Amino acid sequence: MIIDRSNFLISLAATSLLLVSSQPLEAQKKQVEEEKKPWWDAPQPRFSKSELGGVFTGTIDMRGDVKVSNRTIFKAVAVRLGKGGAAGTMLFDTEMMRMACAVPDKPVMFNTYRDGLGGAGHWVGSPYLFTAESGPAWADEGGSFDDVRKGKKAGPLPRSWAHYRGLYRHGERVVFSYRINGTGILDMPWIEEVDGIKVFTRTMEIKPSESMLILRLCQTRDNSGSPTSVLLRNRATPGIEVAKKDDHWHLGIKPRKETIRLKLMIGSVPAAQSDRFLAAAGKVSPAETLSRSTAGGPPRHPNPLVTSGTIGKEKGPYVLDTITPPFDNPDKILFRFGGHDFFSNGDIAVCSIDGDVWRVSGIDQGLQKVTWRRYATGLFQPLGLKIVDDRVHVLGRDQITRLHDLNGSGEADFYECFNNGCRIGKHVHEYATGLETDPEGNFYYVKGHGANNEHAGTLLKVSPDGSEIEVVATGFRWPNGSGAGPDGELTVADQQGTWVPSSRVDLVRKGGFYGFMNAHHREKAPTSYDGPLCWIPHKVDNSCGGQTWNTSSKWGPFKGHMLHCSYGKCTLFLVLQENIGGVDQAGIYQFPFKFQSGGMRARFSPHDGQLYVSGLKGWQTSGAKDGCLQRVRYTGAKVVMPRSLNIHKNGIRIGFTQKVDRELAEDLDSWQIEQWNYQWTKRYGSKEYKVSNPSEVGHDKVEISSARLLEGGTEVFLEIRDLAPVMQMKIAFDLETIDGDEMIGALHNTIHALGPAL
């Protein structure tokens, strides 16, 4: 039944939502009493006490007695509504184009595991102001709501059916942009308070359509059983049909050649409050022109934060300069960094795992005035960032988001969904990490394992235009970093755990399987795996970060070398690679410094040629601070380190950056080599086992027959009889240069192949 009343169409199935308590007061009190603890009083992680920017993206559960088939929204955007975001929270499902629910007053409650970084376990609870059944919100061209996704029904709907384009930020308003069956739609939720009544409104701007559009709005009753009313806030519009079907209200829009605007309201109210509902709905403001919100709005964070950096005073070839984050700030924002890159003008974009992207300027020699401008907020635990053509691409668990500053305000106004093809679940290890590009412009990142879907524990490739995603390699447990070299090399670094005996750095080949059996993604379980470029003992690097390559001569004698970050030990390793007959292997050597937090990502600046490292403290690490952004600056002083490692049938050749004292180099007491293997099992990690007796825990000493300083004075050859492949070797040395500089340290390497005898 449709009732014409004043200037709006009233129907028990329309398109605007009234947020009024759907339960009598006594019923609400009883429900709260039945809970062990009121959900709004639950312990919360530190980041929840900060100013989150009005939007939060995550995996969010609908709790309580809500009657929906699947309470989990894997890619949910929670939007705070009303003035100051104080009136309520709405959840939008970016895979289903569904406004899933809304709650009054209270925000999202966060999982406290790892200080809120557990990935899932976030939730909203009763009372619900409205709910919508899980699954597609819009019908396909045939009028069907059937979920056609394969397997466990994870990931987005087919792009031809529903394509999430992203969201616009305009002041406190959020406008979602998507396409349904090729038709562009802008969709804005909001709450208006009228005469003490909270009215949830949904304003929509719909482009011309050649086919019928059908929207499943909400359930006809809320979780308490109260009926849901729906109103349309504009004069009767031809071609709009509302009907009740399958316990939901449906909105039908017939084909049309012009753009239309609708303002929708949904109210779940007891019958006794219906008159108040109608009176309040009649005073709701007219539908806004949403296209005006797509040109950029006023800055939401107009006051930048300013710090002074610290220039390293250490002696030596490499010193650490600190670009000091504004830890002490009025909004209590946390600074835990998971990726960074450089704008063409030298500014840095850096993302935090708490959902922010910051633009940092003042990156000069002295770092006396560093300005931090909050560029974007509310992203889903971003742990990778790449700038292409001065546009920030940031990697969250849910998608790659491309950020646009539409009006030059210094803040992103459009959060474009560049690619959301990844499947995700609720497991803590399903971080998406290390956004990189190859020379052809393809993007790469790695997904941790958790949910049993086709993307769990894989290296993923996204096409330059963002339209395609594919699996490159499988078998990763929880890789916290990856890398892309100048010649298209791809690396992944995994963490010790089940099926991962110790930390490892992989040089990845297409189609490879890298050991984690729960993510082999093969019809038949493999009985072997692709070996790493290098195993790393757990005590040396208990938790890996990302990799990068030095491609210039501005950073000392290591042009062409790969560098590896350690999250757990907050340090940096030089990777000494070689290829023997198509087989890659390497050793690592630690630089003599420590970052302030766990080393996540490293990039060389194209402006000054120095290395910049971003990091965070979110799980086990030796880091002292929440986060860090530091510059590893080459001073020009003499570098005294190994620079090459080569394995031969009859021994090991080690190159150094300086000429070595002959007497010490050829003294066997200057060298100590031991080796061991690991066991590849489903146990968590592996003990270290003798090569001579694979069942015995321990190391084998490797006997050195002779040590010879080679011509040129910078290389030493260690003659070793019966040298053979081994998973882990440690080469310790106590040397001096010809100038008397100490050279004491240890290489940790893996041997897969032996080169020709020397």
Comma- or semicolon-separated keywords:
mainly beta, single chain, disordered N terminus, elongated, 3% helix, Neuraminidase
Task: Show the helix and strand layout.
Blueprint: E1 2-5, E2 8-11, E3 17-19, H1 25-34, E4 55-62, E5 72-81, E6 88-93, E7 98-104, E8 122-124, E9 130-131, E10 162-170, E11 173-180, E12 183-194, E13 197-206, E14 213-219, E15 228-232, E16 240-245, E17 248-253, E18 260-268, H2 274-281, E19 305-307, E20 318-322, E21 337-342, E22 348-352, E23 357-361, E24 370-376, E25 384-388, E26 391-395, E27 400-404, E28 414-419, E29 432-437, E30 443-447, E31 458-462, E32 469-474, E33 481-484, E34 490-494, E35 503-507, E36 534-536, E37 544-549, E38 562-566, E39 571-580, E40 583-590, E41 598-604, E42 611-616, E43 627-634, E44 642-648, E45 651-656, H3 662-665, E46 671-676, E47 700-702, E48 706-709, E49 715-719, E50 726-736, E51 742-751
Parallel strand pairs: 4-8
Antiparallel strand pairs: 1-2, 2-15, 3-13, 4-5, 5-6, 6-7, 7-9, 10-11, 10-28, 11-12, 12-13, 13-18, 14-17, 15-18, 16-17, 19-24, 20-43, 21-22, 22-23, 23-24, 25-26, 26-27, 27-28, 29-30, 30-31, 31-32, 33-34, 34-35, 35-36, 37-38, 38-39, 39-40, 40-51, 41-42, 42-43, 44-45, 45-49, 46-47, 46-50, 48-49, ...
